[in-house]
Design a protein that fits this description.
By secondary structure, the protein is of the alpha/beta class. Helix content is 43%, strand content 16%. Helix 12 links the parallel strand 11 and strand 12 (251-254). The protein is globular and about 55 Å long. The chain binds iron/sulfur cluster.
Length: 307
């Protein structure tokens, strides 16, 4: 660690103590931000941690919908998002108004909403899911037809694992579509022993070439298996920092160096310090929306606990 970073880390630690704050950090964050995490994980891990913590302040090092989810689960806590402009382009591909119109076209279909969505959209949904729990959530519903929003590719992946009729919203992650099947074919030739592991936000053509399709936390667990010595990684490249740190003797090859989410990378140590000093920017979901969104998030967490 550089001297400057060591000073910043010390400052963050003191501020955390003063504020009784906890730092929840997504797997796609910058390496130096990952290294100061109290908890690091994917959306599901972090929403569970947010629900359980007794800290007064949660600093969410992730994007806006994640901080909103923490606010939905913990209305009495202060939820800080160190860069208020850190959004998710996929989440912004849907609005509550457009979803209400779509629901009228499919009145019998429950809405399963990927957690990468605005709170207002969760409030219009029957149940949320994460990439780790999407198949389980869809299978748990007593309905023949499902309206799945907003990620068409995660929806498509789920449809290959269930007999239910799935209606997709045309959203997608601009970072994951940069991962191309042609590059996987090249890497398979170059590293024939490596396991190809991709995220379900990737396109069906990419998923078809994978050995495993996993959430980011699923990837971290999988990498620890003895038989995995090298892994071709198909997700946002921030995960490679954690994979290398936890498995220093193994090889991790990102499929695309361009698979970078600029929003995830906008949070820095300096911004974490400012947010703890000033207790802002704060993310707070209005109560009327929060209560309806919470029903959908709670249902997801319940299904997670049952499995
Ligand atoms: S990686 Fe994709 S889905 Fe995740 S926050 Fe960035 S744009 Fe959204």
């Amino acid at each position: 660690m550089e001297n400057r970073d060591a000073v910043l880390v010390e400052k963050i630690s003191a501020l955390k103590g003063r504020r009784n704050a906890v730092l929840l950090v997504h797997n796609y964050q910058l390496g130096e931000v990952q290294d100061i995490a109290d908890f690091i994980g994917d959306s599901l891990d972090l929403s569970q941690r947010a629900a359980e913590t007794d800290a007064d302040v949660i600093v969410f090092c992730g994007v806006h919908f994640m901080a909103e989810t923490a606010s939905i689960l913990c209305p009495d806590k202060v939820i800080l998002l160190p860069d208020i402009n850190a959004g998710c382009p996929m989440a912004n591909m849907i609005t509550a108004e457009r979803l209400r119109a779509k629901k009228k076209e499919h009145p019998q279909a429950p809405v399963v909403c990927y957690i990468n969505s605005p709170a207002e959209v969760k409030a219009e949904s029957d149940v949320c899911c994460t990439s780790a729990s999407a198949v389980r959530v869809v299978e748990s519903l007593d309905a023949r037809e499902i309206l799945f929003v907003p990620d068409q590719y995660l929806g498509h992946y789920v449809s290959t694992k269930t007999d239910k009729k799935m209606v997709f919203w045309p959203g997608f992650c601009p970072t994951h579509v940069r991962i191309k099947p042609e590059r996987i074919k090249e890497l398979k030739k170059e590293y024939p022993q490596a396991k190809v592991v991709v995220h379900p936000e990737c396109t069906p053509e990419v998923i078809a070439l994978a050995d495993e399709v996993l959430s980011t936390s699923g990837m971290c667990k999988y990498a620890q298996r003895n038989e995995v010595r090298a892994m071709v990684v198909g997700t946002e490249i921030g995960i490679v920092h954690r994979l290398k740190k936890e498995n220093p003797d193994k090889k991790f090859i990102p499929i695309s160096e361009q698979a970078i989410c600029p929003d995830m990378k906008s949070i820095t140590l300096d911004k974490v310090i400012s947010s703890l000093e000033e207790l802002k920017p704060e993310v707070k979901v209005p109560e009327q929306i929060r209560l309806r969104a919470k029903a959908a998030v709670d249902k997801m967490l319940e299904i997670g606990r049952e499995s």
